[in-house]
TrEMBL record, chains A, B, C, D:
InterPro entries: AGPR (IPR050085), AGPR_AS (IPR023013), AGPR_dimerisation_dom (IPR058924), AGPR_type-1 (IPR000706), NAD(P)-bd_dom_sf (IPR036291), Semialdehyde_DH_NAD-bd (IPR000534). Residues 21-157 form the Semialdehyde dehydrogenase NAD-binding domain. One of its GO terms (molecular function) is NADP+ binding. Gene3D superfamilies: Dihydrodipicolinate Reductase, domain 2 (3.30.360.10), NAD(P)-binding Rossmann-like Domain (3.40.50.720). Its EC number is 1.2.1.38. This is N-acetyl-gamma-glutamyl-phosphate reductase. The gene is argC. The lineage of its organism: Bacteria, Pseudomonadati, Bacteroidota, Sphingobacteriia, Sphingobacteriales. The keyword Nuclease does not apply. It comes from Mucilaginibacter galii. PANTHER family: N-ACETYL-GAMMA-GLUTAMYL-PHOSPHATE REDUCTASE, CHLOROPLASTIC-RELATED, N-ACETYL-GAMMA-GLUTAMYL-PHOSPHATE REDUCTASE, CHLOROPLASTIC-RELATED-RELATED.
Length: 355, 355, 355, 355
């Protein structure tokens, strides 16, 4: 492999007064790769290390082959504590184990992309650390990192549980109703996800021959993201106790989630539109419209589009976002920006793929 | 264009005692083409003519290019009354106009693939004809051609209104409940259709650049097929008066419809499975299962698969079929078979595309 | 799993005077499945057994899920010698091993879909058998099963080496030139194959996330099928000794191969067209045209379309066929038909998927 | 349509000492949209106007719907001369007409994305202008805007003819050989393009139903880009007079071109690799490798990857790039950066779509 022309100038000239040193655990997976694609162009981040057990010593671009020509970074099997933020891009269950086995100083902020700390009852961790050669017990408590729900808390947080992809898409479609106590009937949701939502491991349902031109339902009524969605809705509307019916589909595309949501409501069309517009007024990535939307409008961006309609006695919402960006790594960087006092959109004005 | 090797032997040797002479109006469109693909291999059909105004004089294979090598038939601009059955593959609204302008003898059975005669209040037509040089008024009355609902009536019918594609898929998912008076709550349906459902005319939503890797909702709660679905359900369960909510999606595949359907029910899982299995026991194309299904299992066949589950207090149904076959031209041939006393499956044991 | 409505009538009523009893080894793979899709509707075949070590005892439709409703056959781990023909749908290298370990009576014809016996120097096998309790050495000698090259020999053959998919597509594009001693310059070929060409095993290049909307080259100049192509060309034109350059591509579709081929030639356009038309005049599946062709015209059929042009001093050929049908299982049945004296097209008039 | 949260802060804070005022003609097409996606995030560009006759008065995001939330710009039917650079994103033939009908001051630089000025004999234009109310004849002479060929000339140029998409991909695959006088045999090229290469107009070959899972050849040996390729090759190697055979394919993906190229050569593998690496050493977007590449590695970036191999006596090259970026709008901005003395990569470090 030949990199004929390494980038000699720093692609990320320092704009503000500082650079955030970032470490990444599990850098060889989809969310790790997507995080790298963002961070190598983020003007206020230096990547301190990208950890991968299976790829230690290899160039980043040997795994994330699109990054050839962009970076000479290599994966490492070693960890450094000299960082400001640690991103955990490991499998569900492995984030908690990693932090227990590898205590980082409390000064290092953590953003976890797994589901390990999303639910309130599992949102903290205690582990044995060493402080000035003294064994001590330390703990971390995680804030649910959905900026449209918890922005102020995120700004103060040291540890973030980054929301799930379906969970982000569906919550963004429902939060304004919950915040105004307008969730008063059963909720009906169908959502279709791209193949990247299932990760890079090989499975019969990720085989091209099977998935191309195909569609299928899975985990109907049982998807694990319903739990975090439920917690967020009752955070805003504690009395909400109606069923949320969720039918997830596998789509034959790679990126993005499209959700259609409806429920009974006495609100008028204008009231619903105003409610959503007001709720998201200060949020730079979530946009409300009454026009027809389609999935590709947001692919390869950190944006979420929400189409709001009234159909008979139903509020009808369509919510679209990129599962790897607003649904994972993009939102992780959005959270990092908030935690470090940066403009929320820094490094996240991504060119849409569009086609 | 060179057909180097015309088929010299009759590909459809006469098996039973007769051949049905078929005429096709609107043979250049998707449903016309699909009908031709079936009929040229149907052992008891001779194609008398394939009418197309725009393509008169051209070889069939110049439009339906996959038929090159299979037939030397040409489109014609002329009509012949020397047929047993007439298939109308024209646009919505044009079937009624065609029959008014071109009265065929009553001895010619008609199978209309448009929506013109599907609803009971529009299911008949009167027109001026000429009988032994005497002007007379004739009329035709259409039977709704869903064999799983009306098989005995179809066998006796002279005129068939072939159901819509979504309408077929959704009714097959609901008929057993209606037939047993078990539709007792609001019904929630989401269904995704392939691009052939929109026909061959060019439109922004049929542009490859737009549709590839995309997904979108259209006509939510308003799809025109809801009317014929409603008539069938109340035919079986006259008291049914609950809303049927239907969210149609455009999928980024070419063939097939997948529908997910749920409603509240006190039936047990076993009861639901038995109910569906019993209802479809005598029907050769509609198959009930408790296994997970996926769209491509039925693509390029005349089959419908129905997956039945109980989830909490909900009956949950997934229904899949090929919109051009069981949802259009295949069902039209199935109806023809029934009308002419043939085995229902004749000419319809099609090899699935599978991949 | 419930099969609510088993097919009570024989879907394959006997037409001629006999039924061929067929056994299938390796029935759980892609070519095995495709063979089953053809044979269950073949009017003169009874499937005696479908062998699969990994799926013994399972219903066929549990693996080839599209066959649900079509057959109640199960995979078996046992072999029977009471058959007329044995299809080997196993991996390359395993066909030879299977025959050595499981000698079948010489009266059983063998059609092998692997590459084990395609090349002349490897086209026979000897093994220890038992004849009337006496150990004997038996042997089988295989005929290369490309009907457009070897039809008369196939009719006399007891053992067929079914050609490779690329090999079939490229040979059909070149045979008329070789047969007329018109291969007189270097040959340039690029061909793109669908994902089914790589079989059903999971691999990074078969992952939907990777392959969707992607394209890539593999085995450039080195593809193993070049050997069997070379043997066929020199069978017809022994003096041919020019390089055949072949660049294979992976396409982001599931079925089909499209090849573009050119070489220098003094032949006129008319001469080339005549040459191809004459060569394929008696062959029912291979059709020559001067119109533009596209891959989907032949998907899900046993046909090969060949577009012939002259461009400057080059003969320019485009050849398309379905890799699983004319490139594998369809051609295997075509060979069986020839071997047993049936009409060559029996059971192979398949409805094109078309879209 | 509601834009609930307009971007209040300037997304493009001025970094260097100036902002380039840009006007766009034909902003509603694919290349116009892609240019807008780049320029709204380009740190040293202000978009002065986006001209569209058919969309005057509409928001940009009504056409380029992915830009909703990113910009409140509208299309205009009016032109302003108060700009530094004018991008022409109009159809072939219309760029020349536009400049004749709308003379801009000579101080305004022009970058034309059509083919009107690419060939040397057509590379200049004269038109009637008005200078201080005096009618004068002015002229513009265009430089071929391929930075890897003409970077120094581009830096000095006032008018750029932006190369064609295929032309860029193929030239980048061949330039190092021409520059070293190593094009000494016939050249063989096959290249496949995505659907965006054909623009947004509706055509049968851009219909999703037709193109999905399909492949086809067009304009074999006759593609119009061969002319500009030929001029560039002889600019570097004036004696080159061998045929360049080019077979273009339509692929069933939206973005990107993949080309495979070979020719006879006495160069060793190492020599070829060195030759390519040296040639592109100073060019930030074109990267040379000996690893296997695949199309999606460069989709949604301005990069070109070139895989170099020696196969027998052939040099074998694979070249991949995004037809709308490096093959059109991205390269146009690259040219603008060079013309205005900016770092070549400014605004062009785009996140790859990757999947």
């Amino acid at each position: 492999m030949i990199v004929n022309n390494s980038t000699e100038t720093d692609p990320n000239p320092q704009v503000g007064g500082f650079k955030i040193k970032a470490g990444i655990i599990g850098g060889a997976g989809y969310t790790g790769g997507e995080l790298l694609r963002i961070l190598i162009n983020h003007p206020q981040v230096d990547i301190a290390f990208v950890h991968s057990n299976s790829n230690a010593g290899n160039y980043i671009y040997e795994v994330h082959t699109d990054l050839f020509g962009d970076t000479e970074l290599k994966f490492t099997g070693e960890l450094s504590h000299q960082i400001d933020v640690l991103f955990l891009c490991v499998g569900h269950g492995d984030a908690r184990k990693f932090l227990e086995a590898n205590p980082f100083p409390q000064s290092v902020k953590v953003i976890d992309l797994s589901q390990d700390f999303r639910l309130k009852e599992k949102s903290s961790i205690s582990y044995q650390a060493t402080d000035n050669s003294q064994p001590t017990t330390e703990s971390r408590s995680f804030t649910y990192g959905l900026p449209e729900l918890n922005r102020e808390a995120i700004k103060q947080a040291d540890n973030i549980a980054n929301p799930g992809c379906f969970a982000t898409c569906l919550q963004l479609g429902l939060l304004p109703l919950a915040a105004s106590n307008n969730l008063n009937s059963e909720v009906h949701i169908t959502a279709t996800t791209g193949s990247t939502g299932a990760g890079q491991s090989l499975a019969p349902t990720s085989h091209f021959t099977w998935r191309n031109n195909n569609a299928s339902v899975y985990k109907a009524f049982d998807h694990q993201h319903l739990n975090e969605i439920g917690e967020s809705l009752t955070q805003l509307q504690p009395a909400f106790d109606k069923p949320v019916n969720f039918i997830p589909y596998r789509g034959d595309f790679t990126r993005g989630i499209i959700a259609s949501i409806y429920l009974d409501s006495d609100l008028s069309a204008d009231e619903v539109v105003k409610l959503y517009s007001d709720y998201y007024a200060g949020h730079p990535f979530t946009h409300v419209t009454t026009r027809n939307i389609d999935l590709k409008q947001i692919v390869n961006t950190n944006k979420c589009f929400i189409q709001v309609q009234k159909k008979g006695n139903k509020v009808f919402i369509i919510s679209i976002m990129d599962n790897l960006l607003k649904g994972a790594s993009g939102q992780a960087v959005q959270n990092m920006n908030l935690m470090f006092g940066l403009e929320e959109t820094t490094g996240l004005r991504l060119k849409a793929a569009a086609f």
